[in-house]
Amino acid sequence: MAKKRKATTQEVAIASPLVPLFTSSDLQKVQPVVYQVLKNSFERDKVNHAYLLTGSDHTQLMQIAILMAQSLVCEHPDILACSYCDSCQRVVKNLYSDGVIINSFPSSIKKEEILQLQSDLANTALEQAQKKYAIIHHIEHSSAEAANSLLKFIEEPQSSSLTIILTTTDENSVLPTIRSRSQSIRCNPVLNPLRMEDFELDESLDEMSWYAYEACALTPLDLEQLLKKESFPLTIDSFKKGLEMINKRYPFAVFGQKQMFNLKESASKEIVSDTWSIFSRLFKDVAAHQAPLGVKMSPKQGLDGLILTQQCQQNLATNANLNLCVDQWLIELENLMKEESV
After folding, report:
1. Cβ atoms of 150 and 178 closer than 8 Å
2. Are 58 and 167 within 8 A, CB to CB?
3. Which of 64, 173, 176, 273 qualifies as a FRET site for 147, CA 20 to 30 Å off?
């Protein structure tokens, strides 16, 4: 088999991610214990050579495994991965030269796949990070021969720069010797998504309003608190006007200041921050090749919008001037919207 090479910019641009975008902030919200464990490991530079992620949600297990791999090679880490840099994008699209992802589910993992993985990772690292990783999803579906080959691979790692990340939804089906030689990280079941019919809501609540509530509420208790929050209707109004501004391509600076946020009268730091939280969710969905609420944006614009919005939120959280933060967001958002959209 030919030696792996670095993917071109065009290859990365057209490739689809293996899983929806999942950031360290997402991990902190849905799996706070796992977040803290990984944060401590990366912060102290004590990353184990083998991990076993266990849980019931196979998609989330893969998302966490990919986030761990991204954190090994990220170009702009804040302890854990940024999820947006070129290296992080190539990891989630399985185009990173020094990484291998095996996801044969629902078929079983064959011995030949493990041997090929070992061969691929035996090559000299091509990337600047000089770190290698192997993600093997649904390890419980390995053949006996594959499991034994993997065990030997874990027991005799090729180099200290290699991290092996295994996932399983059935820990008891994994070889005990593999479990004992890997650091086990258990992911708790995630709460069911909020559903409008489960709450006594205003009958006039439309799809955009519910999207706003859902973006800012992780649990039923969060939603109950939002429903009591006097400023949140103004936040929803700002979000709706912002979405109209994007879809109709109004002059962002003028419309944003006077109509969306009304900086001279009703806008507050809280309203702006909450509005940006909703847009972060919107841009994240768009980046994951979804089109919520009929928004007219490309996945790349969604990713760029997400990065911009989170940066502005961080600036606002450090007591930066509200008007300057809003101006920055409007100007830069308008610039990225000038690119060709879908």
Report:
1. yes
2. yes
3. 64
Residues in the chain: 342
Going from the C-alpha of 96 to that of each of 13, 56, 88, 90, 125, the distances in angstroms are 13, 27, 8, 5, 11
In 122-157, alpha helices (H): 144-155
pLDDT category at 100 given cuts 50, 70, 90 is very high
246, pLDDT greater than 70? yes
Residue 253 CA to its chain's centroid (Å): 30
Question: Is the predicted pLDDT of residue 287 greater than 70, yes or no?
Answer: yes
User: Which residues are within 8 A (CB) of 342 and not within 5 positions of it... i.e. 6 or more apart?
Assistant: 291, 296, 297, 298, 299
Instruction: Give burial (CB, 10 Å; 0-12/13-18/19+) of 1.
Output: exposed
Helix pair angle (58-73, 32-43), 10° resolution:
20
Contact 166, 48 (CB under 8 A): no
Alpha carbons 262 and 255: distance in angstroms, whole number: 9
For residue 44, the 8-state DSSP code is T
Contact 60, 191 (CB under 8 A): no
- A 10 A CB-CB count for 293 gives 15
Chain position carrying tokens 């419980």: 140
* Amino acid in the structure at residue 308: L
C-beta atoms surrounding 33 within 10 Å: 11
Give every CB contact of residue 48 below 8 A, 6+ residues apart in sequence: 41, 163, 182, 183
What's the pLDDT tens digit per position in 108-123? Answer: 899 999 999 999 888 8
- Residue 252 CA to residue 171 CA, distance in Å, equals 52
Per-residue model confidence (pLDDT) at position 231:
87
Chain centroid to Cα 336, Å, comes to 21
Asked if residues 83 and 73 have their Cβ atoms less than 8 Å apart, the reply is no
- The span from the CA of 118 to the CA of 327, in Å, is 51
Per-residue pLDDT of 65-88, as tens digits, reads 999 999 999 998 889 999 989 999
